[in-house]
Amino acid sequence: MLKIKESMDIISVKNGGGDVIDLQKCREEIDKIDSQIVELFEQRMKISQNVAEYKINTGKPVLDKTREQQKLDSVEELASTKYNGQAVRELFSQIMSMSRKLQYTMMTYNQAREFHKIKEIPKSKDTRIVYFGTKGSYSEQAMEEYFGTKITSSGAPTFYEVMSKVSSGEADYGVLPIENTTTGGITDIYDLLVEFDNYIVAEHVLKIDQALLSLPGAKLSDIRTVYSHPQGILQSRKFLEQYSNMKAVEYGSTAGCAKKVLEDGDKNQAAIASIRAASTYGLEVLASNINYEEVNSTRFIIITKQCQFCEGSDKMSICFTLPHESGTLYSMLSHIIYNNLNMSKIESRPIPGKKFEYRFFVDFDGCIEEPAVINTLRGIEAEALDIKILGNYIGVDL
To answer: What is the pLDDT of residues 283-328, one digit of tens each?
Structure first.
């Protein structure tokens, strides 16, 4: 027997035992219970503040895993069914997570204090820049677009050497590619950001148009060996698949490959590089725009060994490692969500010496001075095995 309003909304129905279930009455009872839950939740959070003050005064950490596990086990046992027990456990996991986040707002965060603000990055003849590759490289182009040409610059043949020169103080800033819209993140750069105590202070996005370069007079049918950086080969793989006579060989930077073709003087060789590199080394363009994605852009990072950020910085990059346990990544990312910050990127890299364990690299919006960012960093620092701020800088709209 159904009672139905003129609007056709069902307001009551008999259950299997013959009792009438009234939807409106059920909703009113739920609202009453929810009010009680909110009141009790606020009482619990108020007590959590007292707990935080105690921990601050005694130097105890916010997260006490043993205590939390004992608490979760005990509340799960209070439930009348197995399903409710699992649900209660999940509910209290979230409640305790909220409690920790409140406590983190009352504590200090040391890494954030190490960073100091500058008005802008210097771009004068006294500014020493090292970029990946040699003259004519995309990294050199990105450097000139960002810094201009009135600087002191030099190239380095490897990502490692760029990082090393910045870390040693031989260069003030370094320019490195970190991500491409076609091939994704450049994993070596992420690993080096962990290995070296260098920091991202800016980023620059460059449109990449790959070209096939050869000695003057060479034809497509002459080419047997094509040299390029692995990224250049990947971005142009569909073009290369059309020519069975061409074998791709990885070799340094794209501009370095153009230089090799010139120096070897072999018409059977070609390089995948920029038209800028062709002009630099006097090579001919056999084919242009050979990257298979038309929207092919690379994001470059500007690194320095100084813990600094510019006025107007609105993008954070961090990395952290986690206990190899269920739900730990969710717990880390929940700090970003809780503080209403937008996460724009996440990458993972294997941890050397660990079997199938990973370090996570995360970008999210915000400035290191903002309370929401500080709270996020506090929470992740307390619950991750380790955390490093990779940089705070002005993000580029892609």
So the answer is: 999 999 999 888 899 999 999 999 999 999 999 999 999 888 778 8
Residue 158 backbone class (left: φ over 0; alpha: ψ -120 to 50; beta: rest): beta
CA nearest neighbour of 250 among 227, 273, 270: 227
The ranges assigned to domains in the chain are 3-104, 114-206+308-398, 211-287
**Half-sphere exposure at residue 328, Cβ-oriented, CA atoms within 13 angstroms:** 20
pLDDT digits (tens, 9 = 90+) for 138-152: 999 999 999 999 999
Residue 274 has pLDDT above 50, yes or no: yes
Between CA 62 and CA 99 the distance in angstroms is: 9
**β-strand partners of 184:** 180
Is residue 63 within 8 Å of 383, Cβ to Cβ?
yes
Q: How far apart are CA 123 and CA 204, in angstroms?
A: 15
Kind and range of the H or E run holding 284: strand 284-287
pLDDT band at 4 (very low <50, low <70, confident <90, very high): very low
Is the domain defined by 3-104 classed in CATH 1.10.260.40?
no
Show which residues are catalytic.
Answer: 298, 300
Residue 91: CB atoms within 10 A of its CB come to 14
Structure tokens at 301: 């990072």
Collapse the DSSP code of 175 into the 3-class scheme (helix H, G, I; strand E, B; otherwise coil) and give the result.
strand
> Mean pLDDT across the chain, nearest whole number?
90
352 band by pLDDT with thresholds 50, 70 and 90: confident
> Any idea what DSSP says for residue 221?
G
pLDDT at 3: 44
The CATH H-level (homologous superfamily) assignment of domain 211-287 is Periplasmic binding protein-like II (3.40.190.10)
As a whole number of angstroms, the distance between CA 331 and CA 341 comes to 15
Euclidean distance between CA atoms 72 and 31, whole angstroms: 26
Asked if 205 contacts 179 with a C-beta cutoff of 8 angstroms, the reply is no
185, β-bridge pairs: 179
Which H or E run contains 32? Answer: helix 23-58
Task: Measure the CA–CA gap between 22 and 187, rounded to whole angstroms.
Answer: 59
Contact 189, 177 (CB under 8 A): yes
Superfamily (CATH H level) for 114-206+308-398: ACT domain (3.30.70.260)
